[in-house]
Amino acid sequence: MRRRRLLRIFAVFVGAWILLCCANLFLFLSPPAPDTMTPYQPLDDVELQQQRHKTASPHSGSTLSPGDELSAGQSGWFHKILRYVRGEEKIPSPYITKPMEFPPKSSLRNYLFGSVSKKTIFVFSRPPWMNVQAEDDFRACAVKTCKLTSDYFALYKSAAVVVDVSHVPRNQYRPSFGKRPDQVWVALSQEAPTHCCHSYSFPGWAGVFNFTMSYRLDSDIFFPVGMLIRKELPPRKNYVAIAARKTKMAAWFVSNCRTQSKRELYVKELQKHIDVDVFGQCGPYNCSKAESERCRELLHTDYRFYLAFENSFCLDYVTEKFFDTYNNTDVIPVVRGHADYDRYFPPGTFINTADFSSPADLATHLKALASDAYRYAAILERKDRYETTYTLDQALCKLCEIVHSPELNSQDHHHTDIAEWFESDVCFDPEDV
Ligand SMILES: *[C@@H]1O[C@H](CO)[C@@H](O)[C@H](O)[C@H]1NC(C)=O
Ligand SMILES: *[C@@H]1O[C@H](CO)[C@@H](O)[C@H](O)[C@H]1NC(C)=O
Ligand SMILES: *[C@@H]1O[C@H](CO)[C@@H](O)[C@H](O)[C@H]1NC(C)=O
């Protein structure tokens, strides 16, 4: 009797569950919103590695880890399934990540774990943007037991030594300290080899580095200038009205007037067809550091396009010029560089000069967009679903994992020629000017 009642209840549950599922499926299968992103081609690691002279690395597979899991914001299984069914879930781009969650600084945690021995990461020739004061930097990481320092007394016992190889003083042929055998050294650089100081080619640096940490996708620790995060909720704005209010065509903020990428020639050519207002050293408009907020505001309100042209055509070299336009600025970036933009960044959120046969051809396209508020607005709207995030924390988390990795000392992973890794065969002459 009782058993039968139980069975009946169970049957009702199962029935209800199946019904719910059907209803959900029906909802899911409704035509995807027109704005749905087309998924990226999955990464072909082999191809990537062949393309970039890859040193065999136990951590190479994980360089792409930030993009492993891309979510469209809302968490919870319902939204996950919804996004999955709509094909939005996985866009394997190493540049798209999730916000890091910093747990509150808890005195209880400090009390309990403060004395747990942490591995020290020493930063040599510390770049000004790298805050090594923050003892708590690692609290958002999966492996938290690291600390950052640039105190020379901590050097010898450090598990890892990070050297910003682009900014080592010229006279520093080799740091005046030795390398402990079980210490790993990490060569960090965010500069393109074309305008970098080449300190890493000083003979004293040969063979000492175990890992690379840079914007290159084939770095041991991927450390791009920026990454994108899909916003939790897409903003609600009248993008058509924004488009209609724009009065100016294109802006370019620039201080370096003769570059490896010959972008100045490209812009000159472009200017024959459309207006490009040049701000900074190389043009008539001013935009000092102090006014940078005002200039950003101009992009946001007046300009339709921003020329995010890189100064160097080097592998994966993409800078804040590009990433900054994603951070709540209503302007469409026009990119020119040697990163694989079309593969890694959300399609339909930027314009790539590489997709046009000539500056004239690009100008025609920009003019067409400028006169079509709806098409223009659609790009803005798609772009506005993302924002930019800093990447240092993630890179340091990765390093903390590496120094804790149990296999670490059973492998000999080092770069015999770091200069060659950074420089050889990575920069190319532009072919479009
Ligand atoms: C740009 O700034 C300089 C010095 O700050 C000033 O002399 C010059 O007139 C400014 N040019 C324009 C176009 O505002
Ligand atoms: C992007 O904008 C948000 C909100 O305005 C800000 O908190 C964040 O620091 C910005 N990110 C970058 C990389 O500038
Ligand atoms: C780091 O590089 C050195 C060579 O400078 C090498 O002897 C050592 O085994 C490497 N360590 C690891 C963990 O790969």
TrEMBL record:
Name recorded for this polypeptide: Fucosyltransferase
Keyword ATP-binding: no
Region (Disordered): 49-71
GO molecular function list: fucosyltransferase activity
Pfam families, sorted: Glyco_tran_10_N, Glyco_transf_10
Superkingdom per UniProt: Eukaryota
Main location group: Golgi
Annotated pathway: Protein modification; protein glycosylation
Compartments in which it is found: Golgi apparatus membrane; Golgi apparatus, Golgi stack membrane
InterPro entries: Glyco_tran_10_C, Glyco_tran_10_N, Glyco_trans_10, GT10-like_C_sf
Family: Belongs to the glycosyltransferase 10 family.
Membrane topology value: Single-pass type II membrane protein
Domain Fucosyltransferase N-terminal residues, every copy: 118-225
Stretches assigned to the Fucosyltransferase C-terminal domain: 244-421
Group of enzyme by EC: transferase
Organism per entry: Littorina saxatilis
One annotated Gene Ontology cellular component of this protein: Golgi cisterna membrane
Membrane-spanning residues: 7-29
UniProt entry keywords in alphabetical sequence: Glycoprotein, Glycosyltransferase, Golgi apparatus, Membrane, Signal-anchor, Transferase, Transmembrane, Transmembrane helix
Enzyme Commission number: 2.4.1.-
